Amino acid sequence: MKAEKLLAELNRLRADLDKDPTDPEWFTLHHVFCFISYQMGPFQEYLDEAIKPGDEKPDF
User: Fold this and answer.
1) What is the pLDDT of residues 35-49, one digit of tens each?
2) So where are the chain's domains?
3) How many Å apart are CA 26 and CA 48, to the nearest integer?
4) Distance between CA atoms of 53 and 8, rounded to whole angstroms?
5) Which of 1, 2, 3 is nearest to 33 (CA)?
6) 3-class DSSP state for residue 42?
7) What are the Cα distances from residue 46, in Å, to 13, 25, 40?
8) For labelling alongside 30, which of 4, 9, 21, 51 has CA 20 to 30 A away?
9) Measuring CA to CA, how many Å separate 1 from each of 4, 6, 23?
């Protein structure tokens, strides 16, 4: 699984919310999105280790 797919889904979830830094849901998604976008290499390595061939993956 490519990290970009998960990052795109996080961004979609974040965009579904009003930009409100006082909202814990928006705040969490925003900062997770920012962190992962800056750490794509390590995140891709994690996904390569965590998701093995044959593991169920979401269809997106």
Assistant:
1) 999 999 999 999 999
2) 3-43
3) 28
4) 22
5) 3
6) helix
7) 21, 24, 10
8) 51
9) 9, 9, 30
